[in-house]
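Project standup — Tuesday

K.O.: blocked on the structure for the chain from last sprint. Re-posting the sequence here as requested.
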Amino acid sequence: MANHRTHLAKARRWVLKLGSALLTNDGCGLRLESLHTWVAQVIALRERGCDVVIVSSGAIAEGVTRLGWSRRPHAIHELQAAAAVGQMGLVQAYESCFQRYGVRTAQILLTHEDIADRRRYLNARSSLRTLIDLGVVPVVNENDTVATDEIRFGDNDTLAGLVANLIEADVLVILTDRDGLYDRDPRLNPRAVKIDEAEAGDPALERYAGNTGVLGRGGMVTKLRAAAIAAKSGADTVIASGLEENVLVRIASGEATGTLLFSHREPLTARKQWLAGQSRVHGRLVLDAGAVDVLRRSGKSLLAVGVKSVEGDFPRGAIVACIDDQGAEIARGLVNYSANDTRKIMGKPSREFEKLLGYVDEPELIHRDNLILV
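H.V.: unblocked you, prediction finished:
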């Protein structure tokens, strides 16, 4: 346990998930005094040199209250309306809390399609990474206002796990109204024992999980599944009580609080495995000898200056093969520019992209995190 907790103390990129049970007064509006407390802890993490992305529930619960409804509706159009109204209050609350410390926030609304579609995946990833680099705290939520049953994540725990993958987080912290995972429901059995540490993704853990809460769509099962998702890119997960004093600071100090679900993978393994398993490529980039040598020796990002020609017609975010001038495949990865745009910038340095394209996105044609040697 000591080694895993020590690893948490070294984490520099955090995803923090706050659920409806913590953020609302039993579904009756936002619990602003508690939000101020968690924001203060996020500021403390930033002072330690940590980047934090918040995945926040509470929009629908806040909307239900603002609309004067006595209970959470079931009809999708009513849930969407509540989310639209509640997002206003949720965003205002976060902005107000962080403004006290002179820190900017940004709202990011995602649907499942934003993650499943590789082009939109890259767009979301670029936006989040840019905000982090700018010192902004992104507040992410599911886009309940436009989501349908087919595309909604189903709970913000799952969304938090996917965001951890998206930004290559070191740790995912899921704060709830319980202090961790127990072998039995502690509300029903006084002999229940808390599980201090286990491997994320262990199927045996799900038999300990309880039922879904009233305010949200998630439960302990979804938290375990979120931890399994986060673990695929190397992130550890802590499920802990948001009601404990300074819980985030204690986790960052390596204190044994909550349940730690550790990952046995090295970061980026999941994405690399996904890329390696894709049999279909949508185009090919012919590289010069210098670019081939750089990829083979160091696996660095592919720059447009090293591309001699482009084969095929592909969109941004497509999987393309990188080949030498003899046709041998060297690598494959997710390309940051479409085929047409790549033809315009091939052989050129990134400083000329804006002049050639009228815009600039990423300086790399394929970032090393999205590149696998074959």
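K.O.: great, moving the ticket to review. Residues 212-218 have pLDDT under 50 and may be disordered. The chain is about 35% helix and 20% strand.
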